[in-house]
Amino acid sequence: MSIKTLSPHYISVPLTSPLTGVVCSSYEVRIYIWDGSKTAVPAEAVYIMTKINASGASGSDKINISRIVNDFIEFDCTQETSTVLVDGNNQVWVKYECYYEDLPTVPALQEVNLALKGYGYFLEGENPQLPENKILLTGDEFKVSRDGYFVLPIMVDEPPVPERTLTINSFLRTTGVKYGLTAAANFPYTEIFVSVRPVGSTTWTPVAHSGSSYIVPSEIASGLFEVRAGAFDPVTSTIIYSAVYTITAIRIYKIEPYSSGHATRIFYNLNINAAAVDLEIYDGNWDVWPYDANSPRDFSWTPTGNQKIRMKVNGNYSNEVSLTIPLSATINIP
Asked: This protein's superkingdom (predicted)?
């Protein structure tokens, strides 16, 4: 899509947040305008507008941004002395973002377009687009001076881009309901937003973030849940989503011996929010040893020989680990 700044160009803002499904009491639109690389979005918006939804309406607003953008285009015709293809500089990139008050740090809508100082005709209506032949003049035949110069403006298609991917490598609990995300993408992005849902649910809940921490709602963080990440790709002007990532609730990663191997320290990663973790030991049946949620878990063994252990938290089990008591060396579980 392109913007012709001498004709109305409207952006449509739904009054119900696309991320949370909540009718907003207000929203904020930020507009960024720049020249150069499409991905070099400036840090500061050139225009910020806040709209109050005083009536609690659930429809949508339309905002004409053409007049704002038009002020940033200074048309300059480049004159050449021979027939030559010249890169023009009479256009700007325009990005808008929309934030809702219930999730003020995550843009619920965003888009990047190229803006030209041009116009459409009455029958084209609002948001007129470029002609299919990409020639930015009306008509097919032009009368020009034999000794003069003639500029034929043509819009060149953007080069094809590879398939965009966003991959979650890990989503690990740091403390309480705060989590850290490790992800990889093959496209430039400004930030990654995250949604979560309990395993078995179909409803995604957006996650607020503070700095590098994502804050998962406590009712979801206390059980097994799934994660989906998304990021805006300014090149394709689309939001790219990751595959669904299911967290591991609890995982034993190391067992360390002491007291001549008759006692052990069991190290584990706890990835859900819980106050207690059970140690379970198998001797024909699983015996349960309640404990708090602090790793490592110390345990003194009375029987010797081959043993098997696992951890349990809020109904979720860890990996099972086999060991022999007395334990002669540290066990590291990859």
From this structure: Bacteria
Q: How far is CA 104 from CA 81, 135, 221, 227, in A?
A: 53, 41, 21, 20
Is 2-124 CATH 2.60.40?
yes
> Please, which residues have CB within 8 angstroms of residue 105's CB and are 6 or more apart in sequence?
99, 208, 209
Task: Using alpha carbons, select from 120, 114, 138 the residue that is nearest to residue 3.
Answer: 114
If you average pLDDT over residues 169-182, what whole number do you get?
A: 95
CATH superfamily name and code, 250-332: Immunoglobulins (2.60.40.10)
Q: Is the pTM of this model over 0.70?
A: yes
DSSP-assigned letters across all residues of 283-311: SSSEEEEEEESPSSEEEE-SS-EEEEEEE
pLDDT tens sequence across 21-41: 889 999 999 999 999 888 889
**Mean pLDDT calculated for residue range 74-90:** 78
Instruction: Compute the CA torsion angle 43, 1, 110, 246 (nearest 10 deg).
Output: -120
**Which range is least confidently modeled, 52-56, 64-68, 154-158, 295-299?**
154-158
**What's the CATH class of domain 166-246?**
mainly beta
User: What is the domain partition of the chain in residue ranges?
Assistant: 2-124, 166-246, 250-332
Task: Provide the β-strand partners of residue 100.
Answer: 27, 103
DSSP H/E element including 63: strand 60-64
Phi, psi of 26 (to 5 degrees): -165, 160
